[in-house]
Amino acid sequence: MTSTLRSSPASEVLLVSTLPALQLIYDTAPIGLACLSPDCRYLLINQRLTEICGISVEGHLGHSVRDCVPALADSVEEIVRSIMETGDPVIGIEVAGQRADQVEERSWVTYWHPLRMPNGEVVAVNVAAEEITERKRAEREIRSAKDAAERALRHLRDIQDSLIEAEKLAALGRMVAGVAHEINTPLGSSLTVASTLQRKAEQFAAEVARGSLKRSTLTGFLELVSDASAQLVTNLGRAAERVQSFKQVAADQTESYRRHFDAGELTGQVLSQFERQLRTHDIALSFRCESDLAMDSYPGPFGQVLTNLAVNSMTHAFSGGRTGSINVSLRAADREHVELLFADDGCGMAPDVERRAFDPFFTTRRHDGASGLGLHIVHSIVVDRLGGQLRLESQPGAGTSFQLILPRVAPDRRAGDIDD
Prior knowledge:
Elements: H1 9-28, E1 32-36, E2 42-45, H2 57-60, H3 65-68, H4 70-86, E3 90-97, E4 106-116, E5 122-131, H5 133-210, H6 215-255, E6 259-262, H7 263-272, H8 275-280, E7 283-289, E8 294-297, H9 299-317, E9 324-334, E10 337-344, H10 351-355, H11 374-385, E11 389-394, E12 400-407
């Protein structure tokens, strides 16, 4: 490459005196290099830098930046003017452009340094430009991949939220089935008693109308009425109790509001909804509870945890017709916490299953319709909503136990927190 110089006397003397060294650097540098006069004319430029605009080395020398790259002229002149006035370098300026003979836009990062006389006078500006087109392309691809990954993650979270809601409704549906049976039994008995009483009342009225009423008939009828009334009160009371219990549990689980409640009372209400299912599967349920376990927390999520643990045991611990028992105990861990132990003597978990038990969508019984969200929801509620701790222990063939340590006063959850 051959370069000629056109500059002011001072800068020309300096550049000529250093030309061999500069020429060697310019010829061998892997980056673009140029030297600009104070009025932004090209004093030196190497082949690498001419790729910005496509004009030859000779076509640059002596010509102004505005002649060669008019789109960049204003920015370049401002930078050169700043360096001439302050003597401070300007580094890290990115330049992008697309030549007419090229399809793809190319990018460079530029560094601008003053060229000084021995007396310190700034007589020119050295420019170094490193092409970063590939880096920019890689950054765009990374941003694009990141955006795509974030969209996919949002989509998966939306799906997960939908599945969690479906799982919660499914748990409530199972509870409804149990409550329906519990209500049907006392109501069926009440209907039988009421039908018998109606028939006897009709017979009694007929005898009265005929005038053939006997003392023994009157006595027997009164005894029947007394016995039937007692049975009706008992059975209808049981049904009303079940309905009230279910109304409270269902309201808690659908509304998820915060209120004061007794942990033992609520636990008993929730577990009672599974008595029929447990009896059907020949699974014994034992519940022990200390008194005075008042909490200021979220009864809905609390009940959801119990529901999911019960369903998990019936689905996994006692699958394939296996029978056994579930033991639930509730006590004060200290003045500020309660401890809930939920244990079964079912089939237990293998170590790899235990390790992944709380992972979302992980299940060993997907072919049976399990979603893999039951224990994940339990963990999320206990930790994120109730502010508690959860511990799982299991051994193959030796059952599974869950230990929950829950604060009596749940932490406040503001808008934007994780929903149960």
